[in-house]
Amino acid sequence: MNRHSSLHYDVHLIWDVISACNYRCDYCLASPSGISEPPEAVDAKRVKQVLDATGRVYEINLVGGEPTLLTNFVDLLRLLTRNHYLFLSTNLSRSKVIARMIEEVDPSRITGIDASFHVEERERRSSFEQFARSFRMLREAGFPITANYVAHPRLLNRIESDFERIRDMGVELKATPFIGHWEGRAYPEGYSEAHRRMLFDEEVYAGKWEASVATGVRNHYCNAGYNVFWVARDGTISKCTSFLNHTYGNIYKEMHPPDTMMKICNAVSCSCPYYSVLSHYFEKAKKECGLS
């Protein structure tokens, strides 16, 4: 079921909360770090105060880096989910943190967990079962969780056997398209028709997802700055990564009012996912702005 089918929140924040990661995946859209910096903590109490003061309910998507490396990760989740909702992207590598999360966080306030299965990193650590065990524990505790596998071109000859192996451990993987260049070809456009049919369902790849990667929403109405925002690691709130200088305050200090209407996107280059990946917010914004 689409996690937005019964919307309890007004605004979506994509929060790039940490740069450090304990994996070194060369296909990562962020810079692979292998933990290139000391562990971090965020001022969870202050963030909660700033969000609560707006009177709106937020769905906060924690991305990075690997969010579970935050030294106060579970405290952050527990505090923010009192009045808001969280969506989490993670590699599930921190077993003790996951166990504590299960004990202390209300699963009804988590709108989704996108668990990334990075097969080459898992092989280096002999940790297939650890991923499956953490996944099963979260699912059995009532957390909405899915598992993804980045279909890098060099992995295409083994992807079916990888899926079967992890399926035998109780986890159903979904392929997600690789975005980038490999051996002179641009992806996701470079996938063969056969691989597209085999790997990607229509919601993930065909149609609007592919279109958003290729062309974005340039010269069309966009809801960035209206009900979806990008939050940088220093807390600066922007409408999106194409307009980082167009700010709406800081998540540690004060949030400024959002745009009162959707605006035409005039980015020179845009691969904005807001209108496709977060389609419910886009449709909601169109209706509220009288554009539907």
From TrEMBL:
InterPro entries documented for this protein: Aldolase_TIM, Radical_SAM_PqqE_MftC-like, rSAM, rSAM_sf
A Pfam family: Radical_SAM
Radical SAM core domain boundaries: 18-154
Cofactor: [4Fe-4S] cluster
Alphabetized UniProt keyword annotations: Iron, Iron-sulfur, Metal-binding, S-adenosyl-L-methionine
Gene Ontology terms for molecular function: catalytic activity; iron-sulfur cluster binding; metal ion binding
SUPFAM superfamilies for the chain: Radical SAM enzymes
Keyword Iron annotated: yes
The keyword Metal-binding is assigned to this record: yes
This protein's name: Radical SAM core domain-containing protein
Source organism of this protein record: Desulfosarcina alkanivorans
